[in-house]
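Q: I have three molecules that I believe assemble together. Could you output structure tokens for the complex as a whole instead of separate predictions?
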Amino acid sequence: MTSDASVFQRRRPLTAAELNAIPWIGLLSPTEYERAVADLKISDASPGDYICRTGRPVTYWFGVVGGLLKMSSDNVEGHAMTFTGVPPGGWFGEGTALKRETYRYNIQALRKSLVAGLHVDTFHWLLDHSIGFNRFVMNQLNERLGQFIAAREIDRMNNPDIRVARSLAALFNPVLYPGVGEVLRITQQELAYLVGLSRQRVNEALTTLAEQGSIRIEYGGLRVLDLAALRSSVVYPPRPDSRACRALNSG
DNA sequence: GCATTAACAGCCG
DNA sequence: CGGCTGTTAATGC
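A: Yes, here they are, computed for all three components at once.
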């Protein structure tokens, strides 16, 4: 299990439900739609499977139909550095596909997932013919730019509760990941891998967030109750022994 | 202090 | 039963 395209060695046609899970498919004209559907492939990925690897020539533009993927890169010391998770509805690799270069990240399945692929030639054909498709890709690039800038902020935070809150908010992004909806299927262990904390610490952060009403913890997943609060949360109330708190109480 | 690893019981699908 | 969750104890920076 090493080649990029091997994830599509056991591909099959998409069902109607899977087609509906592809956010850009409805933007195409009948002719464009026909061509896209004829080329789309889908395949299962097991935990640990690579969807694509750094340095391999681009063959597909990928999308998540179900499950959860992880985007990472190997740094100079050889350690893997996780950038983000990719939940259902997310499409990625357009930057590389545009330039027909080699993949710049590793994409791995965190759990059993359904991955769709559009061949890079069809990707370019759609760019050349479909205004709707162009709009989607442009919107996608723009939205992700915001995500990566936010990710830099997240990386510099040393407060684990806020790190978890912001990372969660990113995964609930309705533009980039329209397949997520209100409930994100993710285990606390998977979230720990993505955020770079221990499972126990993530559990504690989630409990705090749930107490504050921005999420609800469910078995094997999380329900968002207040996305804006997640994005901008200042998690800690004044500590009981802090100066500010004493000042408040003495007044 | 605070986060991490290790370990365990209880619960869910 | 296997995997997930919530909690505690011991250890390390």
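A: One point stands out. Confidence is low (pLDDT under 50) at residues 238-251 of chain A.
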